[in-house]
């Protein structure tokens, strides 16, 4: 129900020349080499040739990401649903848009999105951050930022703010009229690419060679996470804890979608309407309930869990996997998830003692990157201006 209109919307936007028109790459002026600041061995993101990273562009993108001028009624920005202190999620099971409409799914972490080979919970055709940004801006099913039909108004609003003239000119040098939609989404995408998480205890242990960064419990949890008994790593493996990743120099890109047995309505294998995963786009019966494995970086901060926020805690997520799928006893969603015929063959259930469960959770908590949460490069620039930098 949701994705067909969204795909049509996206196609229309692309046809209108907003999504991926062949604008020549920005001239090399002002392209200070981008410093990702990553530790040795940590893969670098892939950057589209027509949207190189520059300091000026990332700074403009940060401003736009936090600017409520980007919603139809001036109440929301991207950051309303993607808050830095929650690893750029919103703490809600279902995100709520600027006009009060509930989204069928939960907000996702804008962390390491530069590495994703497909975007959002279950969309095999949405690959670029530039295209993705158009959905919350102009989407109507549901309304998020509510800019449909207001593109001219948006451009006028941004043009009315003198500071943007200089910022757009710096970010897109040589562009005679830089305040255009194509550049807005390019700048936002550049900012999103800059948000990389690489300073968690796990990263200090893995990339900085600091053996004391992980507690004994987290180390035991790591063994379990990467074991054939729990199978987590098959879908949440690699540096980004997801099997749908791409990065600079990667030789192949994987995009995988899995049914974890979260639902099995009436024993038919069905997931609740409007949230059936990539099935909404492919309409293939076997794609029912298949979603992308999200990154587990900063997972302790992004509750509630799963595409619809239907699991409240990490402990309950482990119960779901231990049972080989979730059983819902009664109500409209009743069903035995472990018997879902479309479930991944990697979800088979396992026994976990309470001590082992605590260890796995300790490991997941060691993926929290405190430095990212307080990093001024990713914080709200408007707030800093109003308060002179005081929080
Ligand atoms: C009303 C809340 C809301 C607003 C406002 C919002 N988002 Fe989101 N965002 C979501 C939800 C919900 C999802 C998951 C969408 C889905 O699966 O269909 C999401 C997903 C994403 C993703 C995909 C992340 C991933 O792991 O695949 C990106 C990137 C993103 N949003 C960027 C943005 C940007 C950029 C803006 C501003 C232009 C924005 N969002 C505004 C709620 C919001
Ligand atoms: C077959 C692939 C697969 C395996 C194996 C797997 N997961 Fe997942 N995981 C997923 C998918 C897909 C989702 C999203 C499912 C949804 O929303 O319906 C997910 C979601 C999650 C979430 C919630 C993420 C969020 O942002 O809300 C956590 C936490 C998680 N998995 C942890 C684990 C742990 C721990 C294990 C091992 C016990 C594990 N997973 C095994 C594929 C897998």
Produce a short descriptive summary.
This protein has 391 residues and is mostly helical.
> Could you name the CATH topology of the largest domain?
Cytochrome Bc1 Complex, Chain D, domain 2
Ligands (ions, cofactors included): heme C
Output the strand order for the largest sheet. Answer: 1-2
Helix-strand sequence = HHHHHHHHHHHHEEHHH
Question: Which structural category do the helix and sheet elements fall into?
Answer: mainly alpha
Give the overall pLDDT as a whole number: 91
Number of helices: 15
From the N-terminal CA to the C-terminal CA, the straight-line distance is: 42 Å
Number of extended strands: 2
- Coarse shape: globular
**CATH hierarchy, class of the largest domain:** Mainly Alpha
User: Total domains, how many?
Assistant: 2
- Alpha carbon gyration radius: 21 Å
Helix content: 25-40%
